[in-house]
Design a protein that fits this description.
This is DNA repair protein RAD51 homolog 3. It holds the Pfam family Rad51. The chain has ten helices and twelve strands.
């Protein structure tokens, strides 16, 4: 069987072929890598999904199930839908906005605009869909959210399109994550979950082993929610800074990093950092991403 059969030879609609090609899927090998994710690909018709499934099944009879990492990345990115932000420059930096199926961390010091960013992302989602805001620090303001919605001048924007949970403890936070799959199944219009903040529920721990166990449980739950329900998850986080050990007493360089440590850092798809200069100017930086280049842009709320 020809591994490199062009995707244009499949009986797909012209619009489907264009969408596949724009995501870098141009031949049958790359198309086959899409099969494990096929039920999450919204732009494919039932007939097109059946065609891909039939080809995949026939192909694996002869060649086995082997994809390279690039083919799998193209397949994953093919079903990522954008949730655009309130800013064209941020959308450009994020290649269209937050991606469904991913976890994005927004970290920064206090008063840099993390909560504001999360509420503004909720406002953009509320124009057509629904958002879910998990408030662990008692930061959400319905009055402020209403002001943000009025800025959009969209008659369909409504406070009824955002669910808010105020969570006072880690136990309730983990229970909420466990209960969300059932809730999401009955509310399919939810496209964004914001958690403000992820670090706060874990502040009580002095036993790092116990904290690691609880954090791993939260990571598994969030990863499953993002991938199984095709949600964008935005979590805010606090940062800490330290001066690394150095033999030179003149070395005063400070390292800035989000809280919760490497286990958490490796779990997120993207790491964004909000900073504020002495004169009050704020910037948004892409610190880590599997597909975004490192960049920084002005941030205005």
């Amino acid at each position: 069987m020809n591994r490199d059969r062009p995707v244009v030879t499949f009986p797909f609609k012209a619009e489907t072929i264009k969408t596949l090609q724009s995501n870098g899927i141009t031949n049958s090998a790359e198309l086959s890598a899409l099969y494990p994710l096929i039920n999450s690909v919204s732009f494919l018709s039932t007939e097109e999904k059946n065609e891909i499934s039939a080809y995949y099944i026939e192909k694996t009879k002869h060649e086995g199930n082997l994809f390279d990492a690039l083919q799998q990345l193209k397949a994953v990115q093919c079903y990522w839908r954008d949730i655009p932000s309130f800013s064209s420059s941020i959308n450009t930096a994020l290649h269209g906005g937050l991606k469904e199926g991913t976890i994005t961390e927004l970290s920064g010091r206090g008063s840099t605009g993390k909560t504001q960013f999360g509420m503004m992302m909720c406002a953009t989602v509320q124009l057509q869909n629904t958002a879910y805001f998990i408030d662990t620090e008692n930061t959400f303001s319905a009055l402020r959210q209403d002001e943000l919605l009025k800025r959009t001048k969209n008659q369909y924007a409504s406070l009824g399109n955002v669910f808010v949970w105020k969570i006072p403890s880690l136990e309730l936070f983990l229970q909420l994550l466990d209960s969300l799959p059932l809730f999401l199944s009955s509310h399919p219009n939810i496209r964004l979950i914001v958690i403000d903040s992820i670090a706060y529920p874990f502040r009580q721990f002095t036993d790092m082993i116990e904290r690691s166990v609880k954090l791993s449980a939260a990571i598994r739950a969030l990863t499953s929610l993002a991938s199984q329900h095709m949600l964008a998850i935005l979590v805010t986080n606090h940062i800490t800074s330290f001066t690394p050990d150095s033999e030179s007493p003149l070395n005063t360089t400070q390292i800035i990093q989000p809280l919760l440590g490497p286990v958490w850092w490796h779990a997120v798809t993207n790491q964004l950092l909000l900073t504020m200069s002495m004169d009050g100017r704020r910037e948004l930086r892409v610190q880590k991403s599997s597909y975004l280049p490192s960049t920084q842009i002005p941030f205005r709320s």
